[in-house]
Automatic annotation (TrEMBL), chain A:
InterPro entries: P-loop_NTPase, Rab21, Small_GTP-bd, Small_GTPase. GO terms for cellular component: endomembrane system. Keywords: GTP-binding, Lipoprotein, Membrane, Nucleotide-binding, Prenylation, Protein transport, Transport. PANTHER family: PTHR47978. This is Ras-related protein Rab-21. It comes from Triparma columacea. Pfam families: Ras. The keyword GTP-binding applies. Gene3D superfamilies: P-loop containing nucleotide triphosphate hydrolases.
UniProtKB/TrEMBL annotation, chain B:
SUPFAM superfamilies: VPS9 domain. Pfam families: VPS9. Gene3D superfamilies: VPS9 domain. It comes from the Eukaryota. Residues 180-360 form the VPS9 domain. InterPro entries: VPS9, Vps9-like, VPS9_dom_sf. GO terms for cellular component: cytosol; endocytic vesicle. It comes from Triparma columacea. GO terms for biological process: vesicle-mediated transport. This is VPS9 domain-containing protein.
């Protein structure tokens, strides 16, 4: 099963750090892309189902905002990152969530990450507000710190679990997505996977 | 892989260079190649045998060609020839029928039923891509089990086979992706943006201004980023000064060259390879400019890519991207290549939508920049036109300004044999459509007037086969279609029996042209000699008259 995850967040909230930290720690031996720190492939296993995650970093600057759909229109999941010490970065997260729901629809799994939790003392974003918001849009929420390597593993695992569950619900047994390039919704093609391992239907660990 | 290291070095630095920067860059290259890069990635950058380091890559493809030449592979070659023929003739049914037959015989597994390339730009391209991919998939399965190809690993075979077939089918597949209007709009846009630099997109690490500011104001910016703004290889790397080097010119030329090369190579796999090279060399340039250990993310990469595209101004870029989108295989688009290609599309879209508000520049400066560049482009266009005018006046030809009228005159007197050849070449996509030769009558008329005809031909070529210069749309020299001589670089081993009609047509066309030119020259020389002799004779006569006069006196 191939799953595409886009990483969205304002510039400087630490998207690239998260990705890079996650690669470094988890993937030291088999890392595919240190040259390009904005893309990675990783195999994860959640609830007995193996999936290959392709994580796409995106440019977060406002001037590139309109290009978003090019990256996320065929994504299975999105990790929205904000900086807990920067209120504006959370406003951007709300904007993206709205867009994702509008353009990709309900099928995309969303995870929100409040990064830089190591700077708790400078917190600007209200915790209660964030958690309520996440719940209202059906997203999970995690606190992370790329610097101290906190919460990253859990965050990606949760997201992977959600995506796997969603795909299984949609397609039943062995599912293979046409990952890669921009297409419209519903471009997934069901093929019996020769590997067989993916046919096991088992509830993924998700909320 | 010392070869790869050297290749990258040569690629990045050429021959010379030295000093501290050089050492630092050497270290980066080493890091990139030896530590930072896994085997897969190295293969992605340098290819896995096929696309590989120049020497390795050639040999893989050559091995393949050599195998095709051997008598034992005759059945495979026959099959390929048949496919390519059907592909050109558009007899899809025949190909599909053949593949259906193979499928029933279970010669190879069939997996492509009903699966269209959803991303292709148009339906026809999607259909062609489906056909090609199905054929490639089938054939690679078949030849993997073929004894003649046993010594080549299947993944290499897949790539060389694709390269081979895609090169053969290139004229047709290109035609399906080529959109001259889109390309010329893109070129106009890029022409008008040549003033753009690193600062307009806030590529801080690559701009000179940051270097100056960084050394004077210390690490002010860095502190903000401490919470994780920038990833570090060593966790304590983000302390210290912001001193960083800007990428040397050489480093920035690699991605530009790679982007331009996309148009030069033929098969989707090779084009993707160039696109990946552009991407990785931009990353190398960014890494050279960043703090040691800092990694460039998409926030740095996308603006740098946009700028690289502006600076490179790659020919027919939109069509090339569409071509790759249409004809690259799904498995190639997975993983990083798909990601990088998406960035390319995204960068192109940004450039198309761009206005002053998208850049860090005032509206006035933006408009002034556009104006200057447009004027520059216009100046070049006028220069090119003036050059043509000059050629015309040398030729002394008097020609009608109406393009249509001119064409009528031309088309009524074309040699039917030539017409046939041109038509054949057009069908095969070897020459652009509407590429009509200059009429024999016109040449004769000009010759009768004693005018030179060479310029007529040159002008006609420069006009892209249209007579009269009034019709030229964009004025840039590189858009001029010229006949492509497909066999210029071909080895005897590359040429198939089905190529013979094309080859013959090309040969005949060339002979005709050469003969025409030689004849022109003969006529000219004869005339010249005649004039000289006449002159001499008059001189002699004059001298004789003088002598007679002298003797009389």
């Amino acid at each position: 099963m191939r799953l595409k995850v886009v990483l969205l967040g304002e510039g400087r909230v630490g998207k690239t750090s998260i990705l890079f930290r996650y690669i470094r720690n988890e993937f030291q031996e088999k890392q595919q892309s240190t040259l390009q720190a904005s893309y990675m492939d990783k195999t994860v296993e959640v609830g007995g189902t193996k999936a290959s995650l392709s994580v796409w970093d995106t440019a977060g600057q406002e001037r590139f905002h309109a290009l978003g759909p090019i990256y996320y229109r065929d994504a299975d999941g999105a990790l929205l990152v904000y900086d807990i010490t920067d209120g504006d970065s959370f406003v951007k997260v709300k904007k993206w969530t709205k867009e994702l729901r509008k353009i990709v629809g309900p099928d995309i799994s969303i995870c929100i990450a409040g990064n830089k939790i190591d700077l708790e003392r400078n917190r600007q974003v209200n915790e209660k507000e964030v958690l309520e918001y996440a719940k209202s849009v059906g997203a999970s929420h995690f606190y992370t710190s790329a610097k101290q390597n906190l919460g990253l593993e859990e965050c990606f695992k949760e997201l992977a679990g959600k995506m796997i569950k969603r795909k299984k619900e949609k397609f039943g047994g062995g599912v293979k997505g046409i990952g890669g390039m921009g297409g419209k919704k519903g471009k997934l093609v069901v093929i019996d996977d020769e590997g067989g391992g993916e046919k096991k239907k088992k509830g993924g660990g998700c909320c | 892989m010392p070869n790869a290291e050297n290749a990258l070095k040569v690629m990045l630095f050429g021959g010379g260079g030295g000093g501290e920067d050089r050492e630092r860059l050497d270290a980066i290259i080493h890091d990139v190649l030896e530590e930072g890069m896994g085997k897969d990635e190295r293969e992605e950058l340098f290819g896995s045998g096929l696309e590989g380091t120049p020497s390795e890559g050639r040999s893989s493809y050559d091995d393949f060609l050599a195998t095709l030449e051997s008598p034992s592979a005759a059945d495979t070659v026959k099959g390929m020839m048949h496919f390519v023929k059907c592909f050109y003739e558009g007899t899809v049914g025949e190909v599909e029928g053949r593949m259906e037959m193979l499928r029933r015989k279970k010669i190879a597994p069939w997996q492509f039923e009903g699966e269209e390339n959803n991303f292709a730009v148009n339906k026809e391209a999607a259909k062609a891509a489906k056909m090609l991919h199905a054929y490639l998939n089938l054939t690679v399965e078949a030849i993997t089990n073929h004894p003649s190809f046993a010594d080549q690993p299947p993944e290499v075979l897949g790539s060389v086979l694709e390269m081979f077939i895609m090169r053969k089918c290139h004229p047709r597949t290109w035609e399906l992706s080529y959109d001259p209007d889109k390309d010329s709009a893109m070129k106009d846009r890029l022409d008008s943006l040549q003033w753009m630099n690193f600062e307009h997109l806030d590529i801080k690490c690559l701009s000179e201004a940051t270097l100056r500011r960084g050394s004077s104001s210390g690490g002010g910016e860095l502190e903000e980023e401490d919470g994780g703004g920038r990833p570090s290889i060593e966790s304590n790397a983000s302390t210290g000064s912001t001193k960083s080097i800007s990428p040397p010119e050489d480093l920035w030329t690699v991605p530009l060259e790679a982007l331009r090369q996309v148009d030069v190579v033929k098969s989707p796999v090779e084009k993707l390879e160039k696109i990946m090279l552009a991407s990785s060399s931009i990353t190398v340039a960014l890494r050279a400019a960043l703090e040691p250990g800092e990694m460039p993310g998409a926030d740095d990469f996308l603006p740098a890519l946009i700028l690289a595209i502006v600076h490179a101004n790659p020919p027919r870029f939109s069509s090339n991207l569409d071509y790759v989108q249409n004809f690259a295989q799904e498995r190639q688009m997975m993983s990083e290549a798909g990601y990088v290609l998406t960035h390319m599309f995204s960068a192109v879209q940004f450039l198309q939508m761009l206005d002053a508000s998208s850049l860090s520049i005032s509206k006035e400066d933006y408009e002034a920049g556009i104006k200057t560049c447009k004027e520059e482009a216009e100046r070049k266009r006028v220069e090119a036109l003036a050059k043509l005018e000059r050629n015309k006046s040398w030729g002394g030809a008097t020609r009608g300004k109406e393009g249509g009228e001119e064409r009528e005159v031309i088309s009524d007197a074309i040699d039917p044999e030539m017409e046939k050849i041109i038509k054949l070449l057009e069908e095969k996509g070897c020459v652009p459509k509407k590429f009509r030769p200059v009429s024999a009558r016109k040449v004769r008329e000009m010759r009768q007037k004693g005018e030179l005809t060479e310029n007529l031909f040159q002008e006609y070529l420069a006009n892209g086969g249209e007579s009269g210069s009034g019709e030229r749309k964009n004025g840039s020299m590189d858009k001029i279609p010229r006949p492509t001589y497909r066999f210029l670089a071909a080895e005897p081993s590359n040429i198939r029996v089905s190529d013979i009609p094309d080859l013959l047509a090309e040969y005949k066309g060339l002979v005709k042209t050469v003969e025409g030119l030689l004849n022109d020259r003969r006529v000219m020389e004869k005339e010249k000699r005649r004039l000289e002799m006449e002159k001499e004779r008059t001189m002699l006569e004059k001298r004789r008259e003088h002598e007679q006069e002298d003797s009389c006196e």
